[in-house]
Amino acid sequence: MPGKPIQDPFPDHAHDHDRCVKEAFDRAEKLFKQNGLRLTDLRRSVLEIIWQSHRPIGAYDILDRLKDGGRRAAPMTVYRTLDFLMENQLVHRLTSQNAYIGCDHPEESHRGQFLICRTCGVVGELSDARIITAIKETAATTGFSVEAPVVEVTGLCRDCVELDGAGRGHA
Amino acid sequence: MPGKPIQDPFPDHAHDHDRCVKEAFDRAEKLFKQNGLRLTDLRRSVLEIIWQSHRPIGAYDILDRLKDGGRRAAPMTVYRTLDFLMENQLVHRLTSQNAYIGCDHPEESHRGQFLICRTCGVVGELSDARIITAIKETAATTGFSVEAPVVEVTGLCRDCVELDGAGRGHA
DNA sequence: GCTTGAATTGATATATTATAACATTCTAGA
DNA sequence: TCTAGAATGTTATAATATATCAATTCAAGC
Ligand SMILES: [Zn+2]
Ligand SMILES: [Zn+2]
Ligand SMILES: [Zn+2]
Ligand SMILES: [Zn+2]
Q1: pLDDT at A3 over 60
Q2: Residues near ligand 2 ion, CB 5 Å cutoff
Q3: How many CB atoms lie within 10 A of CB A113?
Q4: Which of residues 118-147 of A touch B (CB under 8 A)?
Q5: How far apart are CA A14 and CA A2, in angstroms?
Q6: What is the reported pLDDT for A166?
Q7: H-helix or E-strand containing B47?
């Protein structure tokens, strides 16, 4: 049985994105059922828009796409939906980008660390214990008790490093 | 000779803040001279306002205080000055707060890590090699090359942990 | 099926943060 | 003094996010 290979946290430029979307929605639907949440048309649409790529998308861009899709909507519509999706870990907000990105593993309560490629715009989510430990222990030396670490790292992804920062265009 | 004791990255609730301000301005003046920069009234005022406390302050709050001080100013005035101060490492922007904080050590080019107390609002800046190493090495396992890590950690500072999250009020 | 309260969405207005573009003033040096 | 570049003034606008109240939809119990 093939199954999923060892997971790479950063989506390759040539990966099968349809599979990402399918898996994301499978997980989402499961989560909604388990928790008795309502996967409404609006929520589904917003989630679809967000999962159209691995690039973070702004609230007003989501709004535009909703309108393109024939739905009438206002900023509040989007922000409310984003709040709901974030509460349920289906979406994360990248504070350094004022933008939103889909999450791979909404089952577990978490706050990921993010790698953001400056060239292609793609984001990968990490969940690395060592980073968190380093932050917690360093904070502890000054008596600081960590609650919500924000880690957002810009740089160049594997594919864009190879292209020496000239790469563009993929899901 | 007394000199400075081992530096604690998080300002104590009862520390001598006048000394912080004095030292910050000594460093700033030195930096301006060394680099042939112009420490204008506007820049000095903005830096003073930012150093009034160890809490981050928003651009529009800076604007208000400038006006209180009898200076006429517009948002652009503030943002331009902040840009200048940030270029010269005298000020950092906390992306998770949309707010700005004074920097302790403008001499060295750096991008700090920040501890932000949710109760008293005070911010301490770290510059911890272990955190950066953990981020770089983890990123490297997926071929990602780190350029600009953002680390902003909210939680409770030493003093506020002791008060169990009821503390308030100091510089 | 009908009722009802809660959840969801609609609609309008406004707050907050940040940038664009061009004009004027200041300042260091020739 | 003259002048070019730096700094600031001024006006307008973009981009992001929230507050508030009304209308609609939905699930559950009767
Ligand atoms: Zn994908
Ligand atoms: Zn996640
Ligand atoms: Zn101080
Ligand atoms: Zn600093």
Answers
A1: no
A2: A 103, 112, 125
A3: 25
A4: 118, 124, 126, 128, 130-131, 133-135, 137-139, 142-147
A5: 19
A6: 57
A7: helix B41-50
Closest CA to A145 of B118, B140, B57, B54: B118
The pairs formed by A126-135 with CB atoms below 8 angstroms and a separation of 24 or more are A126/A9, A126/A151, A126/B138, A126/B139, A128/B134, A128/B138, A130/B134, A130/B137, A130/B138, A131/B131, A131/B134, A131/B135, A131/B138, A133/B134, A134/B128, A134/B130, A134/B131, A134/B133, A134/B134, A135/B113, A135/B131, A135/B151, A135/B153
Q: Which residue has the tokens 């998770």?
A: B96
Task: Using the mean position of ligand 2's atoms as its centre, give its distance from the Cα of residue B72 in Å.
Answer: 45
Q: Are B126 and A140 in contact (CB under 8 A)?
A: no
Please judge whether A153 and B156 are an interchain contact, meaning their C-beta atoms are less than 8 angstroms apart: no
| Integer Cα distance of B99 and B58 in angstroms | 4
User: What tens digit of pLDDT does each residue of A84-131 get?
Assistant: 999 999 999 999 999 999 999 999 989 989 999 999 999 999 999 999
User: In chain A, which residue's Cα lies nearest the Cα of B117?
Assistant: A144
User: In 3-state terms, chain A is what percent helix, strand and coil (to 5)?
Assistant: 40, 20, 40
pLDDT in tens, B75-122: 999 999 999 999 999 999 999 999 999 999 999 999 989 999 999 999
Q: Which CATH number fits domain A17-162: 3.40.50.1820, 3.20.20.370, 3.30.420.40, 1.10.10.10?
A: 1.10.10.10
Domain regions of chain B by residue span? 17-162
CA angle at A100 for the pair B152 and B139, rounded to the nearest 5°: 55
